[in-house]
């Protein structure tokens, strides 16, 4: 009669690992001691081992005779597509770099103009001269329409704003 | 997984298949063919045990090699080549099995087992009383064992096949299946217990005397 409790799941897992040679020395010794004194554990180990051996009856199919040549042929079919793909990727890379450079150029130009605006040239100054000369009037007026009215010679004669 | 301090060069020195794969990466035309020759039987065998269909097993094995080739430029020798190869095989096999669950097909090529014809395992179990197990023909037993293996879930089956037929350690299986070693231990324990329970009537067909039953039985 077995005086020991049946193996629980953990103990069975240790037993299977022991059968597979996957336990350390201490665990192996403990298991061997248990197997020596417990016929039920011994029987369980034996049935586990025998069932495992039955897997040897499974057929071992051989690959077909032309398996290697067929596989290599499929690789050859991949090669031109992979080469074209590589060229496409090369051009995509170049374009990406060009676009990045262009973007940097535009961003740099905008930044320079923002923080270091250019000095006005002669044309700019000529265009702004009339504004500068009449600035006193513009400051007093509320809007441009009023200024236009002030410039009317019928109303103000030679003292119109434009004189 | 590479041991601490183990470089790709050291792996290449110890594992000739790593050297071959580096050749494939460098577009050496003969290296790929050598790898296929070296691994085709093992891969087709593993796929057959997992899928149960010889034609599909070959297709999947070929797909594994194609993936190896496509990934060659990114290959870095961080583990044994076989571990990497069977990791790809594991992923492909599991995908195929899950697709099959959505579109069921007959999982096994049940071969003619002689005068009795192909018989499912259940029928054989019922006939046990009428037909002593010692007389079960070898091919019939192969069918029975195939059914028993097919009765395991996908992960149990993969762990069993890698352990039994590829002789992989728990640590290697864990790496291939992306599990912890503890999880692999539990998986194999449940798988082997399930197999034992299904195959119990056939375990002593070789004539060996079974152990004496205990009072619990």
Which chain pair has the greatest contact?
A-B, 39 and 52 residues
Question: Which blocks of ≥5 consecutive residues of chain B have pLDDT under 50?
Answer: 107-120
- Total count of strands of chain A: 0
Radius of gyration of chain A: 48 Å
Count of extended strands of chain B? 0
Largest sheet of chain B: none
Which descriptor suits the 3D outline of chain A?
Answer: elongated
The fraction of residues in strands of chain A falls at: under 5%
The helix-strand sequence of chain B is HHHHHHHHHH
Give the overall silhouette of chain B.
globular
Write a structural description:
The complex is a heterodimer of chains A (163) and B (217). Chain A has helices spanning 9-19, 25-37, 39-54, 67-115, 122-133, 135-140, 144-150, 153-156. Chain A is mainly alpha-helical. The model of chain A has no long low-confidence stretch (mean pLDDT 80). Chain B has helices spanning 8-14, 16-25, 29-51, 54-70, 81-102, 121-126, 138-150, 154-165, 170-177, 181-199. In chain B, α1 packs across α2 (16-25), α3 packs across α5 (81-102) and α9 packs across α10. Residues 107-120 of chain B have low confidence and may be disordered. Chains A and B meet through α1, α3 and α4 of A and α3, α4, α7, α8 and α10 of B.
